[in-house]
UniProtKB/TrEMBL annotation:
This is Uncharacterized protein. It comes from Symbiodinium microadriaticum (Dinoflagellate). It comes from the Eukaryota.
Amino acid sequence: MGILFELVWRKPSEKAGGMPAFRSGLEAGQPAQQCSDSSWLVPDSGKANGIPDTGLAFADWTIPLVAAFVGWFTNWVSVQMLFYPIEYVGIDLYRKKHVPYGLIGWQGVVPTKADVMAARLTDIVTAKLLSLPEAFSRLDAPHFASLILPSIEESIRNEAPNGAAWALLLKPLLHWALCRVVRALQRDISQVLDLEEVVTDAFLRDVQVLVELFQRVGRRELDFLVISGLYFGFVLGLAQMWIWAHVPRAWTLPVAGAVVGYVTNWVAVKLIFEPVEPVMVGPFLLQGMFEMRQPEVSVEFAEFIAKRVLTPSRVLEGLCDGRRQNEFAALVRANVPVVPDSVVAAALSGLRNLAKEPPSHAAHVYAADALGIEATLAHRLQLLSPKEFEGLLHPVFQEDEIILILAGGVLGVAAGLVQLFFGWGGPSALPAAGMTSLSGM
């Protein structure tokens, strides 16, 4: 890493008798107005290599590069802190609920607030994007009944008392009975399936699913957040270099690092989401990066929800084992011939077994296509206003935006201190910097 101090060590002079002489900006005892020669700013090695005398040392020109690295690194760490670690790492002495940091330790912002963020996403999906009656109305009852029949028939045969006899007896009626159940399901789906529970459970059962959703739909914005630190850090580093050329003080290292880390995080987050609504500035249309990608993000979000959250398997699980499972069992009971409860229970067990089948199972393939969840979500997401659409991703940053921005500043301070101790000049950098500061008093 570069350092903001020029360290110029000379061999012991004949007069000094063994102690190296450090030259600061002003020679000891020399008046400031007489120090017109700026050659002390350029190391001999630089001149020897043909570097023009610009009044800045070769090490000074590394300042923008180091600032660019600090900007990139602090932004990269901030992005990681959004999602990881999934579980709290540290000494959990005391920590408030929904707060990612403890006295000693950290947990990713998204995992920490998984229930809050899952609830927000669930509200968007269930209240604004998807209608259960509409989706289930697309099922062809006879066809779907024929696809689920083998699993139910097998379960009755294997699990019900006298199952083989009941399976044989019900064989001529089973398809008809299942058609009745599917049609009743289409009429009363909102009473027997809690869609909010299905979506929330998918996110909270495995928080990694929620993390992957945000990482996928926001991947370009997250990449921009990281790479922008490199560019913004370099620009700020140019200003830092100018300051160092005029005020070569040790404190400028951590202070400048803090500014770079803080400002790069703040600017990047603002550019991602603001302005929410498109604004014309002369011939240019300005809008937040995420809002500008609404058509693309809508497709990706819909695909993820359809394949990882609202899958046919999860819907079946929600029917059979959700908080409204008794209502679903009653619906099945009311639409089948008069058979023992043990046979009905075996039929429900067949649906549970079907839920465990892979996505390639014929019933799952048909249900996914017929329900049209992916196409419906993609279309309606594109119809949302920019303000409503922003709610898909912005909460990830908004919840602890100030913490992440301040974290960039803290990491920048740390980078500056590392420069101070281990920068150009090796272990002698710190005392040399101290001598530089003292000489300017």
